[in-house]
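hey so u asked for the seq, here:
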Amino acid sequence: MSETIHHRICPLCEACCGLELKVNEGKIVSIRGHEADVFSAGYICPKGVALKDLHEDPDRLRTPLIKRDGEFVEATWDEAFAEIERRLPPVMAAHGRDAVAMSLGNPAAHKIGLLMYGPKLMKALGTRSIFSASTLDQMPKHLSSGLVFGHMFSIPIPDIVRTDYLLMLGANPMASNGSLWTVPDFRGKAKALRARGGKFVVVDPRRTETAALADEHHFIRPGADVFLLLGMVHTLFDENLVRLGRVAPHVDGVDAVQSAVQPFAPEKVADRCGIPAADIRRLARELAAAPRAAVYGRIGTCTQEYGTLVSWLVDVLNTLTGHLDEPGGAMFAKAAAFAANTAGTPGSGRGVITGRHKSRVSGAPEVFGELPMTCMAEEMETSGPGQIRALITIGSNPVLSSPNGLRLAAALDKLDFMISMDIYVNETSRHADVILPAPSALEDSHYDVAFPQLSWRNHARYSAAVFDLPQGQLPEWATLLKLTAIVQGGGAKADPAQLDAEQFGREATKLFADKAAAVIEATAHLKGPSRLLDMALRNGPYGDGFGATPDGLNLAKVQAAPGGIDLGELTPRVPEMLRTPSGKIELAPPSLLADLQRPAQDLARQTPSMVIIGRREVRSNNSWMHNLPLLAKGPERCTALVHPEDAQRLGLADGTMARISSRAGSIEARVQLSGDMMPGVVSLPHGWGHNLAGTRLSLAAKRPGANLNDLLDENWRDPLSGNAVLSGIEVELAVA
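ran it, structure tokens below
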């Protein structure tokens, strides 16, 4: 068999880099960056190369598993679906639809089949018990964007290739390659910013890899970003620096914001955030004076008690300084497909509504159809109508990735039934009664659904499958349709292809009315996600309109371009992208103004002597990456970074073990002295703790590390978004 070359979109982080794979006799020979990719231009990080390890991992599941007498046994797909049909519908019949919960993890964002067909299963279940990783790391940004701009994915991103000034808070794109900002080769773009005379400023409790690239770095007390940003907004009004620019006719609420920030003068917030008032005022002046500038905040700004307020204030700063929706500022991508802010009537919409229902136990509000992940355990433990008695997880590992996972693990063991769609027997799926294995990413075709809505440049790219599905293996969309059929009473033997055709017909009729028959006929040669993608591309902002615009996009054209199709740089989109009821940028949402009472009351809070924050690393963005040899090799990464002054005060030495304790629990981790830490702050990476019995992650188990989440209080959440508080937790350090 001759060597073949294949092109893929990397599914291992939000950068979505283009890859070039060489395959010989069914084996991957090499993986490199695809130089002709219109979006990533050959850039690649170690994760992309590790896709070979993931595909070939002997621990990756390749057949369904059913638990018999407490042990997993291999089963056929028919046996697995029969077991689900035997056990899941009776739970729904006896206890109601809310008794069945769904939990979705980050990998689902990189699988078009999961993103397109997961909602179909949710709708069939009719349950309010929906959870996802979004309430662990990003829901505040979705909520604030929805309130201000009208949709959860209308998130402004820095136009980094044209900006003169970039202020970044709580983000480390040198490790993440962007988060809610799809930006491969951030290093190259940041260096180019500085080379053309621009300025790059980072605010973070750790001098991160990204901060090392910056012109200026400021330590900030963890969880106190809200005070810095309020001080900057106050300065803009106080010094008459507000300039709305082109978007001025489209902004409501400026006066309300001015009134709301009056208690937060820089001189009043400086001690609370740990940044001098003079620096707060200077940063505001520099931002206002820069011809092209942007503010960007990410995971550190979301995983704190003021996550939604901080996410909102980032957009307030960009708006008040005239940098919103301007070249070189904070702009909106225009995706070729699936973006709500390109559909419907331009310039207005329904906006967003939250709190349509609340969790039974804590009363946490629903946000975009989800309840906080940290409510899951209590909803399983607490009896009464709506108690969760069954669970379906899709690429989700909350036992390891959410606060107090041990409590959740105990609750999972008491469920009546649990299904996991996963590639591993991990810390969560080990509790399942049935595990349905996912195919390798290289056995699936792919188109990114979410990330083109957050990309630094507009584009459309498609990945064909590199390998055929193993005999008997179902694509994930078909698995989800089989589950949908079971919960709807159609049985385990339902034909997913027939179900798919019926559902597509209903969707086409809803979208196109009397033209639906022509759309159905034009796409009849496709099935599954490919058919939905073709319809979305053709009906999108660059589409061919099913013949109305012959030069426009369709799936065939995107498939024929192995490096993708470049759709150009970001362009101004206000007001057409707004989907708020008023048709304006609603800069002062009442719920956010009301929530400013919390930081106002918190100004005088005493700073703890030691708090802990998480961190991400380029080789371990997610827990399952610890089982891949290429990413797992090298020095120990699950270390506690401690400033030398703190270590001396506490009697700790480099390389020794420290006991880290909080009100929620305690763990042990190896100390690594680092002058890059803010004194009084210790950092431990996310996603470790692979020492739980019953998992099948053989390589990860050799270096289990310590689980940061064992220190966190699952009841501490941002009250608006329900996002877990993962940062700024008070801890004590001592010699182990």
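The chain has a mean pLDDT of 96. DSSP finds 27 helices and 27 strands in the chain.
lmk if thats what u needed
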